[in-house]
Amino acid sequence: MELHIAKDPAQLSENVAAWISNYIQEVLQDQEKFTFVLSGGSTPKQLYSLLAKPPYAEIIPWEKIHFFWGDERAVPFEDERNNARMAFDVLLDKVPVIPENIHVMRTDIGPEQSAAEYEQILRKYFKDEELTFDLVLLGMGDDGHTLSLFPGMPVVHEEEAWVKAFFLPAQDMYRITLTAPVVNDAACVLFLTTGANKALTLKSVIEGTFDADKFPSQLIRPQDGELHWFVDEAAASAMEL
Ligand SMILES: O=C1O[C@H](COP(=O)(O)O)[C@@H](O)[C@H](O)[C@H]1O
Predict the structure, then answer these.
(1) Which residues are registered as beta bridge partners of 193?
(2) pLDDT exceeding 90 applies to what percent of the chain?
């Protein structure tokens, strides 16, 4: 695991935008397509908006990228809480991506059906071979959740399904999420975490005893891939560095 600490969220977004742009170009030297799994929530917004502007808007080969989502809140696309909607507003509507290469988790159908459909999309894309995303971007909630793997929810222990839907009572909302084993097959996973409100949780996730029910983010340990945590000084402030 590699830890990258930036001064503040703005610096962090700059660093991650540069890092992602280099990584995409490097990977595309050896392959034709790049699979990029986006996260939702508020933390990646600044990063997405930087990627949508020069120099990244011009140097990233957008037409070669296939976009997927790590998780979705089962609310209509028009709802501000919809993870895909945020990515469209800030990034995907602003750069020359190919619409067919954008694979959203649908919320205009039932969550169970959406999860089953998404798993089929992934199986078709990866042709039933090993599912290996090139890059998975993740966030961490102050309760230690990542994707929609929330503390204490059975989905945390899912080993078979690639995609699961479930009701999250704490938010009175259905969630659709990739499962941990799928993300752990990725070539590279990048966590983005900012803010003093996440400092104690981050310390527990990185330096604490393994307890996936309490801190689902600890489940993310790519088998053969890279794991990077990009955090700001406030989020890192409780760690023993
Ligand atoms: O609910 C969610 O939260 C996490 C963390 O979001 P943040 O606002 O604390 O950055 C996010 O990664 C996930 O995609 C989202 O559905």
Answers:
(1) 231
(2) 98
pTM for this predicted structure: 0.98
DSSP β-ladder status, 135-139 and 71-73: unpaired
CB contact set of 67 (below 8 Å; sequence gap of 6+): 36, 37, 38, 87, 92, 97, 101, 102, 103
H-run or E-run covering 124: helix 111-125
Cα gap 86→77, rounded to integer Å: 9
- Sorted by where each begins, the domain ranges of the chain are 2-212+227-236
CATH 3.40.50.300 is the classification of domain 2-212+227-236: no
Residues with CB under 6 A from ligand 1: 39-43, 70-71, 73, 83, 138-139, 141, 148
Q: Is the ipTM of this complex over 0.95?
A: yes
Q: How far is the CA of 189 from the centre of ligand 1 (A)?
A: 15
What distance in Å separates the CA atoms of residue 181 and residue 198, rounded to the nearest whole number? 24
